[in-house]
Write a structure and sequence with these properties.
heterodimer, A: alpha/beta, Rossmann fold, 6-stranded mixed beta sheet, 4-stranded antiparallel beta sheet, 26% strand, globular, disordered C terminus, B: alpha+beta, 2 domains, 11-stranded mixed beta sheet, 58% helix
Chain lengths: 246, 395
Amino acid sequence: MTDSTPPEEATEDEVVLALEGVSRVYGTEVLVRALDDVSLEIRAGDFLSIVGPSGSGKSTMLGLLGVLDLPTEGTIRVRGTDVTRLADAERSRLRGEAIGFVFQQFHLIPHLTALGNVETALLYRGLSPKDRRSRAMHALEQVDLGARHDHRPVQMSGGEQQRVAIARAISTDPGVVLADEPTGALDSRNAENVLQIFDDLQSPERAVCIVTHDLHVADSARRKISMLDGRIVADELLGAGTRVGS
Amino acid sequence: MRRFRELVGVATAGLTARKVRTLLIMLGPILGVSAIVAAIGINESSKGHLKAKLQELGTDLIVVNASAGLGFGQDPVIEAAAVARVGRLPDVVAVTGTRQLSDIVTVPFAGAEDYYRAFPVPVIATGTDLPNTMEVSLVSGRFLNDFDEASGARVAVIGRDLADEYGYLAGEARTIELNGLEYGVIGVLDWVLLEPSMDSAVFLTFTAAVADWDLDDPDPSRLYVRAPEHTALVAKEIPTVVSLGGPDGANASVPTDLLDAQSQVDESLNNLTKMMGGLALIVGGVGIANVMSISVIQRSSEIGIRRALGHSRGTIAVQFLFEALVVGVFGGILGALVGAGVVWGVAAQRGYTMVLSVAGLVGWSLVSVGVAVVAGLYPSSKAARLEPLETLRLG
C-alpha cells in the first residue's frame, strides 16, 4: 500500500457505495447463491439499515459493501471506482480511506490502548506520529472517551469498547460507516447510547449503514432495506426524513 | 522512512505484548549463535594459548632418547663421548645429558619413608648446564657446577613443585635423604614447561651418581639439545652422530612439534563446531516458523481487523516479516553476547587469553537475522493469505 493523501470528503447525494447486479456464489461442488443479482446505492447522508433473517444474505452483502470480499458476478463501486478491477493493495487503500467498520464483537487489538487501537486505522497514510495521535484523540473525544485513551480493552466495559471501535471507524473520516450488529453484544442502555452515537455520526458527507436482525435497531434508521434469500425484497424510507439535509 | 518506522513500531508492539512467547521464539537464535560463538571462541582462545606457549617454549629444543642396542637386560644409554660429539654439531648451542636413577627413595624428613616409598620422587643425574639448555632459571640458590661435578659432592638441586611440597624456604640450609644418604639442597630450579616431570625431581651430578648409586659409567640415557637454526635437520642427524653406525641407537624428537600439531588440528574442530552451531540455528529457525505460525492463527482476528482498516496483504506480510527480523536481530545480538560471556568465563578459568573475532560476532548475528527472516517467510505469507471475512465472523 502506498502513502496517500487524505480522502476527499463526499458531497451530499454523491453515491459513495454501489452494488450493480452483484451475485455471490460459494462452494465448488455444491453451489450456494448467497446473494443473487443485487443492486444498491448508498449516498452520502444516508442512514440505512439492512435487515433480514439468518441466511438472508445480509452478512454477505456487508462483506461486499466493505470490499472485504469480491462478487462472483457484478460490480462494486466505491466513489465511482470499480473495485473488482483493482489489485489488492489499491483496493485495500480505497477501503481504508472510504469505509469505516464497526463489528458486533468490537474486534479491538487487546495489547493496544484505546488510542493505539484508533491509531491503527491511521497507519501507513503518511501522517506524522503527532498528527496521527491528534486525529485519533479527536475521534475518541467524539465518543466521549478522551479521558480513557490509555486504557486497554480489557479495562473497559462492552459499551466503551464499542465506542472505541466507532472512534476507530470514524478516525479516517470515511464516506460510509458499515456496522455489523453493533448493539448485538450490548445491554439495552449501552445499545441506546451506541445508536445515539450513530445518529449523531450521520452527516451530509457521511453515510451510516447498519446490518441487523433487530427490528428496533433497524427502525432507528431512515431507510430500511429488507433482505430474503439473497435478494432485496424491500427498500423503504422511514419516518419523516430520508437523509440529513434533505 | 515513516512507513518503515511504523512497521517497526507495529512489529515491536506485537512482540512486546507477548513477552514469554517472544522470549521462546528468540531462544532459537540465542542458543544457536551463542553455541557457535562460544565454541569457536573457546577453540580460538585455546589455540592462541597453545601458540603463546609455543612462543614461550621455543621450537628449537630436541630431546634424544637412547634406544635399545645390543646390551640386553640393561637400560639403553648414550655413551658420554657421544654427548661431546652432538655438542660439536654446527647448529647446536647447548647439550645436556641426563639419566633418571631407579630404586632411590627420597625422604625430605624423618617419618615420611612409607609415603615416598609408595610415591617415589624422580632422581636425575644431570650435566651442569641443564638450566642453560632448558632455558630455565633458578628460583633460589645455584645449580650444580663443575666443582660439584669434579668433587662428587653430595649436593642436590630440587624442582620447584618438590620445593613447595617440602616447604623449602629460599636460602634455607637443608638436606634431603636419598636411600639414607644426606644430600645438601643448594638450589631450586624453576618450572620446566617442556619437561614438567623435572618440577618434582631431585638433580645431582653424574660423579655423585656413579659414586653413590652403583652406576657403572656416567653415560646419560637422554640428551636435551638446543639448536636454534635448522632444528629439524639437526634432529635428523643426531641419531647417526650418536651411534656412528654402531649398535647403540637414539631417537630424536622436537616436543613442540606435538603442540604445533595440536594447534593445527583445531581447524577441523572449528568446522565441526560451526556445523553444530549452524544446525542449532536451523533448529531455531524451525522453532521461529512454528511458533509464529501458531501466533498467526491466534492473531487472526487482529489480522482481519487490520485488513478491514485498509492494510494490504503485502503490509500484513511485511509486518510479520519485521517481527521475525526483530527476533533475529535481538536473538543474534543476545546470542553473541552470551557466547562471548561463555568464552570469557572459560578463558578466565583456564588462564587463556580471550580471542574473539568481532567480524565473527557480527557475521553470526547476521546469519541469525537471515535464518529468522527465512523462517518468518512461511508464517508471514500465511498471515497475508488470511481472508478477513473468515477471521471477523460477521453477522
